[in-house]
Specification:
- The chain contains 19 helices and 16 strands.
- By secondary structure, it is α/β, with parallel strands linked by helices.
- A 5-stranded parallel sheet has the order 3-2-1-4-16, with helices on both faces. A 5-stranded parallel sheet has the order 6-14-7-8-9. Strands 10, 11, 12 and 13 form a 4-stranded antiparallel sheet that branches.
- α9 links the parallel β1 and β2.
- The chain starts with a helix and ends in a 9-residue tail after the last helix.
- The chain binds flavin-adenine dinucleotide and iron/sulfur cluster.
- The site of iron/sulfur cluster (SF4) has 15 residues, from α6 and α8.
Length: 481
Amino acid sequence: MAKQVMLKFTDVARDMPEKRPPDLRRTDFDEIYAEYADAKAAEQSSRCSQCGVPYCQTHCPLHNNIPDWLRLTAEGRLQEAYEISQATNTFPEICGRICPQDRLCEGNCVIEQSGHGTVTIGSIEKYITDTAWEQGWVKPAAPREERAESVGIIGAGPGGLAAADMLRRAGVQVTIYDRYDRAGGLLTYGIPGFKLEKDVVERRNAQLAEGGVTFELNCDVGVDLSFGAIRGKHDAVIIATGVYKTREIEAPGVGGFGVERAIDFLTASNRKSFGDSVDEFENGRLNAAGKKVVVIGGGDTAMDCVRTSIRQGAKSVRCLYRRDRENMPGSQREVQNAEEEGVEFVWLSAPVAFEGTEKVTGVKMTRMRLGQPDASGRRAPEPEPGSETSIPADLVIKALGYDPEDLPVMFGEPGLAVTRWGTLRVDHRNMMTSVDGVFAAGDIVRGASLVVWAIRDGRDVADHMHAYLRAKTPKKQAVAA
Ligand SMILES: Cc1cc2nc3c(=O)[nH]c(=O)nc-3n(C[C@H](O)[C@H](O)[C@H](O)COP(=O)(O)OP(=O)(O)OC[C@H]3O[C@@H](n4cnc5c(N)ncnc54)[C@H](O)[C@@H]3O)c2cc1C
Ligand code: SF4
């Protein structure tokens, strides 16, 4: 019975309380959910065979000690499970919610590979840390001594926040600069609330502030404050600015009203969930309610856009992708979720023009077929001649991925070397860029990646930076706490 209730409300209940039936108030929901979660976590944890070849652990970017915290959870020793889990992961409850586990830990569980269904590692990680928050076991940084060294971090996404946490715990003075009004990066304004509740991110931001991290928000570095000024203020700097340049479609009508960028659509939706007033949502431009929505792309951002459109009350939602289901970059789990929610996937199709004069009314598209493998080994899509058709649309969302912005120009620092993809070039032995004392982490180094990799980078860069600071300023005095 409890399981049915959980499954019935899992999609809408977490961040959309107004959509819960009036007879199920939050307290009722939480009680049922908590009861279910306790039993489920213990049951799932006890399924771990303690196989001795923990592929789950090696395929987790943080090398979380999964078998140990599963065993402790099965034994009901949750606080110890939490201690082990948080020793390698700065935000376990966030990874538990949004890691693509089917490609990482769970996809490599030996029980899964023997055909018996994976241990639900991500859900258990979330459960352990949510319980730790409820029980007051999650503590802000309380360094044994305050150090005089100061670090400036540009970008308050998971990479920058993970680095800040590690550095503060070592007593370093940390200031984070971010162009947005709230910290969290894509955790706050990219990933939708039905996958990652915003209060989960907010409590982490608050905890960092409580631990002594200073946030300078609404500060667009390169516009409001120069990169040089930040370098001048701090002993070392981390760039963790992510990747925000939307890949564009070259087709007639692409600049018209109603042909919108995924990041704008998702940011507007997330802002609304904070209760902000968002003009472009209010005037309908970035609001899918009642509309025929077409999303273009096959990655996780596209999946977030189709599922957000459904939740906003779109009339219909179609997803156009130029390859087939087997060759799409997004998670198969997400596609399945989207299909169950009513999204129609139009595989092997690509837009050739956007129709409409004052605003978009349709998408002209062509069928694609898969040709020979390209340099990446994937079969390259090519148009099928004579296959063009039109489908109606009054909101088109472009979700083709992101590239880095031109940081050397934005920061007025031509000495910052970049790769041919525009990501920052770092020395992988110490994560330092080509500019002395300037380190980099997260998507701005890897290209668009995953939260768990940004956390890993943030933790690693903090270690390297700590070594750099100690070598550079061995005689700097620790300041009184
Ligand atoms: C829609 C969407 C959904 C995703 N879903 C998932 C998912 O489900 N699971 C998953 O693992 N990953 C997901 N990802 C990827 C994941 O969000 C990123 O890999 C991760 O957030 C990268 O972290 P980061 O710290 O490098 O950068 P970001 O999270 O992008 O943070 C960078 C921060 O830098 C700030 N910044 C940039 N330039 C400046 C400047 N000049 N001055 C000041 N501040 C600046 C930005 O405002 C931002 O806050 C998703 C990405 C998108 C776009
Ligand atoms: S951090 Fe991600 S990959 Fe690692 S155990 Fe947790 S859910 Fe799995």
